[in-house]
Each structure stands twice: as C-alpha cells, then as structure tokens.
Amino acid sequence: MTIESRYHSLRCSFRTAAEKSRLDITSLKHPLVRAPDGGDLYIDIASYIPLQARAALVVVSGTHGIEGELGSWVQSEWLNQWRKSSDIAVMIVHLANPWGCAWARRVNEDNVDINRNFIDFARELPVNDGYANNWPSLELDRWYTDAQAELDLPVLSWAAKDGFEAVQAAITQGQYLRAEGLFFGGQAPCWSRTAITDHIASRLGHLSNVVLVDIHTGLGDYATHQIIVEAGQDSPHLEKIGQYVVSGSSGSVSAALSGTLSGMIGQEVGFPDYLGVVAEFGTLPPLDVLRALRIEHFAHFSPHPTKEQRDTASRLMQAAFAPSEEMWRETALHAALGVLNGFHSALTTTL
User: How many CB atoms lie within 10 A of CB 130?
Assistant: First the structure.
C-alpha cells in the first residue's frame, strides 16, 4: 500500500464493512484540505443506535493520522464479525485525522496533535517547562546523514541529566507554545475535535453509559499491547479485560498527557458514566520512535526537502507507527479484536 493510496484504500474497505453490517454512515468532509491526489478527505462515522439502547461502545481510529492504518483494519474486521445487540449502540469513528493518514503524519494539517487538543482553551494553557527549556535538543536544525549517534546525543544527554521519565513526559505530554514543534496541542479546538464531539453528542448524548476505545500505535514493546485508562478508572467494565489494563500513567508505557480525546470527550459531551481508554500497540524502542518523529518533522518543515529526506522520513514513520511485518499485524489485529469484543461483552453483561 503506497502513501498515495493508503487513505482511499482504508476508507473503501471500512465503508464496505459498514455497509455490509447495515450501519448508518455519516461522512464529515474536511472543509479545507485534500489528499495527495487532490481528492476529498472525510471522517466516516458508522453507527448502530437501536431505540432501546442503554449503553454505547465507541471505537476511534486515526487520531494520530498514520497510526490509523492498524485502527482502520481493526474496525473493518470487527464489523465483519460483530453481532448486534438491541441494548448496545455502536459508533465507529474512522480516521479521526484523515489528513494525517493521507499524508503519513501523526498531526493534522496545522501541525496540531489532535490527541493533545481536547483542553479548555478559554483557560490558561497547560505549561510544559520541560519542552520549553529543551526544544533545541529535539527539533532538528539540519539533516543528519548516517549519523544516528550524533542525532540521538542531545536527547541522551538530556536523559542523563534529568532522567528518561522526565524526558518522556516533557516530549509527549503536549506543549502549547511552539506551533511548529513536536506534540503541539494547538491554540483552539481543531476541526476534527469539533466535528467528532458534535456528532457523538447529537447521536449518543441521550445515553448515560458509554465506553470509548481509541486505537493507537508506537508506544510499548514490539507486538505487545496495553489498555491505558484515561477516564473512568473505577468503571465496572474494566473487570472484563483486567489483564490488559493499566490505570492512568502509573506503571504504564505512557506519561501523563494533556487534552486526550479518550480522556476528555466524555466530559465535553456530559456522559454520567463514561470510560475512555487507549488501546496502545507497541512497535519500536522509544528512541527509535522519537528519531522517526524528529526526522519526519524536519523533512516536513524544510523549505526544500530532497527526495532522500522525504523517502527516509516516510520509511521511518512507517516502521514506527504502521509496521509491515505480517507477524506484527496479525498479533495486533488479534489482540485488538479481543479488546473490542471484551468491552462489548462487558457492556452487555453489566447493564
């Protein structure tokens, strides 16, 4: 699957699965940007909402653009085997960041990390001193050719001084200062946030019991997975998949984050009983993933990137967030289907 064909191929497969399952499909067209081939970009949301539904399972893919490759496969395959329940509504949000998926970036067209954008912008923005004080160690000012050790040295020196956990937190928790930096959370709600929140509120706002699963890649050991609870740590639904669960950031592969979709959308919509989790599927070691992000970031913002730079960035991002190895894909798909089936079963048996 080429970069140029990825988005359209994933979208076609998902819509076929949703239509086969006879779900209602709403296509939210991005009003400003297009795919590399000039085509339109959409968030497709497939829904099954029976009148007597008492709870809902929401599954999101592609919040981080390129990571949507796995999420899309999981959503399509799950719909192919899913069995409807008259008590449980289902909503599948396909490729929440369609521009990022189409252009093989984690962020959106404005360099905004959608998974750091769910904050209250009317209040004082979160402060990330770690990033503010160390961004020159992260953001490349030149291209490194076959100089991996030299490229990694600033980050390793920082980690030696402050500790790896402090570095990870500073890098990943989100920052709202440098619009062209890494993990930038934006200065206002982005289009994806508004479109998805409004749709969920309009279709599921009458329900009180909602579980949302946001599928991600790139964090954790290769071919392993964890469920990271962002909201609703005391939910009874967790008992059904307890062997996968890490509550919050304690013991988790993830640092504490600001403005995540799964953590905040329940509060924005106003669900009384809400559980928001990230299903995280590991790929490469953290330093390798960070290296891919830094190189891709440089190539994207370079005024005249060479073909070598573009190709290198694309290759590294693919390995970090959408591995091509069959073993990884089969393992991740099998695990993700088990997680979704577990949550759907949990909703059914706890009503």
Answer: 18
According to DSSP, residue 127 is labeled P
pLDDT tens readout for residues 136-180? 999 999 988 666 778 999 999 999 999 998 999 999 999 999 999
User: For residue 235, what are its two tokens?
Assistant: 């939910």
SS (H, E, C) 68-79: HHHHHHHHHHHH
Tell me the Ramachandran region of residue 306: left when phi exceeds 0, alpha when psi lies from -120 to 50, beta otherwise.
Answer: beta
Residue 66, φ and ψ in degrees, nearest 5: -60, -25
Angstrom distances, CA of residue 112 to CA of 51, 55, 109, 174, 192:
37, 32, 7, 10, 10
pLDDT tens digits for range 33-83: 999 999 999 999 999 999 999 999 999 999 999 999 999 999 999 999 999
Q: Looking at domain 3-122+182-287+318-350, which CATH architecture does it have?
A: 3-Layer(aba) Sandwich (3.40)
100 closest CA partner among 43, 161, 150, 18: 43
CA dihedral 160, 322, 276, 342 (to 10 degrees): -120
**Could you give the CA distance from residue 134 to residue 132 in angstroms, rounded to a whole number?**
6
Question: Do 199 and 45 form a contact (C-beta atoms < 8 A)?
Answer: yes
Do 90 and 57 form a contact (C-beta atoms < 8 A)? yes
